Amino acid sequence: MQHREKNRVIAMIPARFEASRFPGKLMQDLNGKTVITRTYEAAKNTGLFEEVYVVTDDDRIFNEIEKAGGKAILSQTPHECGSDRIAEAVENMDVDIVVNVQGDEPFIDANSLAKLLEVFEQPGAEEIDLASLKTKLTDSDEITNPNNVKVITGENNHALYFSRFPIPYPRDTSANVTYFKHIGIYAFRKSALMDFYRLPMLPLEASEKIECIRYLEYGKKIKMVETSVKSIGIDTPEDLEKARELLTDC
């Protein structure tokens, strides 16, 4: 039997300084280190990646990561989304799988990331273009909240569609449907990521403002992996205070 080489896997952390709800949040102090430094170190400490990079449009973030002994890449052109920023950075790198780690989520769950990467080592992996995470939603307010992107999948856990609207629509409440929230951590094949970078946005993505819809619109296959771990992001000053308390309790 022919031996298949192990995939070369790296993590990329896209990091903008500006953020609509909490500008400069990645440079905020989180118990002695900045949010972006905590996230970078958490990604490194998983031991899952050959390399971890922060890719940013801002000299302050670039210098912060270099000062912490990390690896940072400064974007050469402006970008609309994190995937485009990552694609520019990896275009000339010799890698197979690129994991997008959110810069404002310093509490990384290594087990969930490991499950994502297992997708590309399993039988039939060659047909998967990218993998991402989902978690069950049970609270009705969470289900209807447009900030929570919902995902529906087929029997093989391939994504069928993503929406800010509650999908599927509960016309028959006796159907006992489970709702899933999409967690925006991705593991891409480099080839799929570069296709995303070069292909124009189509109407469904433009309407929902959900970038992974572009993959579906162009026929890519997305494998969803269920996790029970809730992501802890820092989107507001109140989130930052909660994160400080959580670190203090650890």
List the helices and strands and how they pair.
Layout: E1 9-15, E2 29-30, E3 33-34, H1 35-45, E4 51-56, H2 59-67, E5 71-74, H3 82-90, E6 97-100, H4 110-118, E7 130-137, H5 140-144, E8 150-153, E9 159-163, E10 179-189, H6 190-198, H7 203-208, H8 213-217, E11 222-226, H9 237-249
Parallel strand pairs: 1-4, 1-6, 4-5, 7-11
Antiparallel strand pairs: 2-3, 6-10, 7-10, 8-9
Helix pairs in contact: 3-6
Task: Give an account of the 3D structure.
The chain is an alpha/beta fold. The protein has one domain: Spore Coat Polysaccharide Biosynthesis Protein SpsA, Chain A (Alpha-Beta Complex). The strands form three sheets. A seven-stranded mixed β-sheet has the order 5-4-1-6-10-7-11, with helices on both faces. Strands 2-3 form a two-stranded antiparallel sheet. It has a two-stranded antiparallel ribbon with strand order 8-9. A hairpin with a 2-residue loop joins strand 2 and strand 3. The longest helix has 13 residues. The radius of gyration is 18 Å and the shape is globular. The N and C termini lie far apart (47 Å). The mean pLDDT is 92.
Number of domains: 1
**H/E element sequence:** EEEHEHEHEHEHEEEHHHEH
- Helix and strand composition category: alpha/beta
Strand content: 15-25%
The quaternary structure here is single chain
N-to-C CA distance: 47 Å
Number of strands: 11
Classify the fold: give the CATH topology: Spore Coat Polysaccharide Biosynthesis Protein SpsA, Chain A
Kindly report the average pLDDT value: 92
Biggest sheet, spatial arrangement of strands: 5-4-1-6-10-7-11
- Examine the secondary-structure arrangement and name the CATH architecture: Alpha-Beta Complex
Report low-confidence residues grouped into runs of 5 or more: none
Q: Rounded to an integer, what's the Rg over CA atoms?
A: 18 Å
The CATH top-level class label: Alpha Beta
